[in-house]
Amino acid sequence: MSAAGAIGFRRSVTRPGPATRVGLAARVGLATLVGLATLLAGCAALPPHPLAQRAPLKADQLGLTGAPLQSVPQAWWRALGDEQLDALMDEALSGNPTLAEANARWQAALAQAAGAHAAQLPAARLSGGETRLKVPQGFGPYLLGGSSVWLGDLGAVLSWDPDLAGEHAAQTAAARSLAHAADLDRADARLLLTGAVTEAYLDLNRAYALEDIAAETEAQRASILEITRRRVTAGLDTRVELREAQGALPQAQVALLQARAEEDLARHELAALIGRGAEVYASIRRPHLDADAVLPLPSALPIDLLARRPDVIAARARIAAADADKRAARAAFYPSINLSALAGFASVSLTQLISAQSFGYGAGPALSLPIFDGGRLRAQYRGTEADLDAAVAAYDQTVLGAVHQAADELTQIDSLGAQLQQQAQWVADSEEALRLDEERYRAGLASYLSVLNAETEVFDARRQDVELASARAVARTSLLVAVGGSFRQPLPPST
Q1: Residue 477's closest CA among 186, 91, 194, 89?
Q2: What is the pLDDT of residue 52?
Q3: Whole domain around residue 442: which residue ranges?
């Protein structure tokens, strides 16, 4: 109890007489009429009913057709059959900084939701203090006027806002929707991380395949160079052929160095994704995986695309949060009632603070209604309307981006599949042409230039085959990410 409260409590010991009670009843009735009039005036200040707002896109507006995609296991990368990839993925999911940041944002959102929910519950606090007070002379001797006293208080206060207009409930709903969205952001970050690790691992596998081709070409050209030297010694070739053979060897060596540099770059990327540094570069070995096992190909855009991408569901949850914020802003126009009760001790003497004669208590409601605030509440309400429209627009953009990404990856996969069929024929034909030219060269029926051209054709065909196969594997991984294939969290009823 405050000093003023303690003094007032001492003055209220006189019981009112009949006339006083009649006057008190009149004042209560007048206060009631004034309160009702104020309530009506406050309700009249409410904003007009909002206009119909933009509705989110629906599946039939996006051209989504076909049967739902087959469910993909949560650890979908294990289908590649590479133990090293499994170990790298486990380390990435536990040590990646981006994933840790998303988890921290989710924890913060949970704390905000808990704080918003706490506003709906009764609150109790215990307070106490001791103050040296000089009582003014004007209070008179009956109130210790002119004396210096210790004024002490110790008590408990219980308060509760019944939330009749639903403002706190709406704020809690908004905070919970944002917490759910943050949880979905975690799932989205996890999905993107698994896709990034897999793609970096596929790049490492591609670099090793290119190194094999370059090393094989280098050995082949070194063998041809030795044959050319012997033919020049025997007078079957000139120094022109020798120079051509010598110049072809560094080309293969350059390709070999480029492939090894790409291996190192892929290792650097993997180390960064798992949250490690240069100390793990040497420990990342050559992959041994089945690149065609990433994802079964769908025949059309999946109709359950919207139900499987965590970023799409998170955008929908943010619409729910913006709508709840709008309800809370509207509820702020209504009156609020706070119920409070207090009990405790107050005394001007330390020795009598904890005693029956120093004990007091009280309870009652408090009404609050905005009448004039310069348009602040209206501005806040219009702001929440704009936020809701922005959330719907962001949801639409996320959905359109998801459909765009999935459609692009499907087109890319189809095109790469057709290219690989033609590429296989190119590789076979060029290898056969090289074999025949080498036989003719050894028999002295063809020049080295013919062999070099055929060998270059084989080199280019094999490199292109590796590039196309790797690109298709990466496109399959990107498609899995685009359709949220590894996301299996059930949708809440509100979403």
Answers
A1: 194
A2: 54
A3: 45-120+161-334+369-482
